[in-house]
Amino acid sequence: MAAACSWRERALIAWIAPRGIVAAAVSALFAIKLEEAGVRGAEQIVPLTFLLIIGTVVVQSATARRIAIWLGVTEPDDHGVLIVGATRVGRAIAKVLAQNKIDVLVADDDWIAIRAARMEGLRTYFGNPVSEHADSHLDLTGIGTLIACSSRREINTLACVRFEPEFGRDRIFRLRILAPGEAPRQAISGTLRGQPLFGEQVTQRFLEEQLEAGAQFRSTRLTEAFDWEAFRAKHGEAPLLLFAIDDKGKLRPAHAQREWQPRPGWTVITLMPAGSRAEAGAEPGETPAREAGAVGDAAATTA
After folding, report:
1. Which of 9, 138, 222, 276 could form a disulfide with 238 if both were Cys (CB 3.0 to 4.6 A apart)?
2. Which helix (H) or strand (E) holds 288?
């Protein structure tokens, strides 16, 4: 265990490690022996020992979090995203989120798709995300949101069901493969699906066609001078709102039931159609998505 822990982790363990049971047992033995020897005040050893144990527990519990933060060994906030499906759309979403400093993990059992994601610098897991192997090897540290955008409906549904207890239903999202009313005999029951991303009518095919036509994901930092109303006034209804990142770094995916509106200080991520992007210049806070920097692989396996 020591070899697997950094010195910072060992320092935290040394501070909070339990020691009271040994002290309590030894003090009771010493008290008995000293009383037999006629030593005055021997009966005070046990209560004083327990008082010391209680004091150290209180001090350690009150300071453990601050020391962990100071040592830099606290678990990160669960602002990260697990993207199931290394499709072209899934990789594009992952890149723009990584560009905005959102921790992203892309999972898929399609080796060709995962290889493309790795070539684009994305952190990946090669394997079925709902498999027993994933239960043991899929590192979800800092991950708190699921985006299911596999090209296979069954994988999306299983991922929504699998991760709902862990993330919560309000943080489970899926990108539609079929539009509402399309192929009703093949559609999955709504009780097994996550919230549809970006609106009921937005499908993977729609986004693929937009990207093929030259559309780009664009990140825009809203300010008091250039707020969401000003953004809409400048670009109209053409840009599709995909995500917002609030001033605390929390990701807010856009969906039909959302109860929030982008505010100054937030970053909005939109899909900017090719025509509107060419006609309207960029504000100072607007940046198109760029290639994500290399951030390595996580829990990658071989076929």
Report:
1. 276
2. strand 286-288
